[in-house]
Amino acid sequence: EVQLVESGGGLVQPGGSLRLSCVASGFMFSIYAMRWGRQAPGKGLEWVSSINSGGDGTSYADSVKGRFIVSRDNVRNTLYLQMNSLKPEDTAVYYCSDGSGNRGKGTLVTVSS
Questions:
Q1: 3-class SS letters over 16-81
Q2: 89 by DSSP, 3-state: which?
Q3: What is the pLDDT of residues 81-99, one digit of tens each?
Q4: Neighbours of 26 (CB within 10 A)
Q5: Which of 2, 9, 51, 54 has the most CB within a 10 Å radius?
Q6: Comparing C-alpha atoms, which of 28, 23, 48 is closest to residue 38?
Q7: Predicted confidence (pLDDT) per residue in 45-92, tens digit
Q8: Do 97 and 37 form a contact (C-beta atoms < 8 A)?
């Protein structure tokens, strides 16, 4: 059974940083590209970032480019999202997903003073 479990969310002040993690199990994590997405209150799901299977190819939404960094550890089957210079508009539930439509339950990030 595929499982994706996100963690690392919380309350942070504007300008602060958080590091999200997503632990994967039940599939060969190392051969799949992975994605981060988010859903803000009252809005639809938004793609945030992608990373290829080897970790040497990444892409970002314009809204987070230059502030967020996606990475992965294929030994620990873990996906990361380092979020810096956070803004109130980054407030959302953040999800990780694989390329087959599987998604975790998400972790809530709240950026507020």
A1: CCEEEEEEEECCCHHHCCEEEEEECCCCCEEEEEEECCCCCCEEECCCCCCCEEEEEECCCCEEEE
A2: helix
A3: 999 999 999 999 999 999 7
A4: 12
A5: 51
A6: 48
A7: 999 999 999 999 999 999 999 999 999 999 999 999 999 999 999 999
A8: yes
